[in-house]
């Protein structure tokens, strides 16, 4: 039960990231690049302060930073650039689809082969997500945007897998944010991104970085070693559904039958994949 609650809290943090990002960028309070940089900076500051308060050290020069910070960098840049040209729903589908495939593949290569029940559950949940998020009308996929979101999905999958070997979730996450920060800023602005941030944009980016990203990612690094790669991939399919539900409650967005049916398939598929049965 404790693992279930911690995992659920982590997924809610990830969904809150989506809400904060949408509030900042859709309202014009922030551009994607500025939001990403302030987000990583805030996460680094909050996590470093928490590590210092408990008298710990931050392993910035550990070899784990190659996978941890490198994959976080790939995710942040890919995610920020992709949403300049991709529909939000289609972007989420590409991201979570790539995360599923990558984490399943890495798990299989490292000896954690998914069970048939997990594969079936993942298929049902992903199908429900497609039903909910597929854009209405003609679909035009920008090749650059799709490529960048694919890179973001691979980055997040590697980031999640690398957390399985992180000895200290908090200090490891702090080190990842600190190392990724200058490279994220440099890469985004070399790509020609403009800096446009209002006071509201800074506040939303700081909340996203310091709370829902920094603390959420640290919690994820604490939880993910207790989950198989397949289960860790599948439970993340709940994030868009939680974000949509939060949008309905907090942003007065509209709920329809399509949303309810799709969400039911997502949650049912996750339940099928993660529920243990005798003999498992």
TrEMBL record:
Compartment(s) where it occurs, according to its Swiss-Prot or TrEMBL record: Membrane
Membrane topology reported for the UniProt record: Multi-pass membrane protein
Top-level taxon of the source organism: Bacteria
InterPro entries: AA-Vitamin_Transporters, EamA_dom, EmrE-like
Transmembrane segments: 34-53, 65-86, 92-112, 119-137, 174-193, 199-220, 227-251, 257-275
Any one Gene Ontology cellular component term annotated for this protein: membrane
Signal peptide: 1-15
Keyword Transmembrane: yes
Predominant location category: membrane
Protein name per UniProt: EamA-like transporter family protein
Species whose genome carries this gene: Ruegeria conchae
């Amino acid at each position: 039960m404790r693992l279930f609650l911690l995992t659920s809290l982590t997924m809610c943090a990830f969904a809150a990231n989506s809400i904060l990002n949408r509030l900042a960028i859709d309202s014009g309070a922030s551009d994607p690049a500025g939001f990403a940089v302030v987000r990583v900076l805030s996460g680094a500051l909050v996590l470093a302060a928490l590590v210092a308060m408990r008298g710990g050290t931050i392993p910035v020069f550990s070899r784990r930073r190659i996978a941890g910070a490198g994959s976080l960098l790939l995710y942040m840049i890919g995610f920020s650039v992709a949403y300049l040209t991709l529909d939000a729903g289609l972007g989420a589908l590409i991201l979570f689809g790539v995360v599923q495939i990558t984490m399943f593949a890495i798990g299989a290569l490292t000896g954690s082969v998914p069970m048939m029940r997990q594969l079936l559950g993942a298929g049902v949940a992903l199908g429900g997500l497609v039903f909910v998020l597929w854009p209405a009308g003609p679909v035009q996929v920008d090749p650059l945007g799709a490529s960048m979101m694919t890179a973001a999905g691979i980055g997040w999958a590697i980031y999640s897998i690398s957390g399985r070997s992180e000895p200290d979730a908090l200090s490891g996450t702090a080190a990842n944010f600190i190392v990724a920060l200058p490279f994220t800023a440099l890469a985004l602005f070399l790509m020609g991104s403009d800096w446009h941030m209002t006071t509201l944009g800074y506040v939303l980016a700081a909340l996203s970085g310091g709370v829902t990203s920094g603390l959420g990612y640290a919690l994820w690094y604490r939880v993910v070693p207790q989950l198989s790669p397949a289960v860790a991939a599948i439970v993340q399919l709940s994030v868009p559904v939680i974000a949509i539900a939060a949008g309905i409650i907090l942003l007065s967005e509209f709920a329809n039958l399509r949303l309810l049916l799709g969400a039911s398939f997502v949650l049912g598929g996750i339940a099928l994949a993660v529920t243990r049965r005798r003999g498992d």
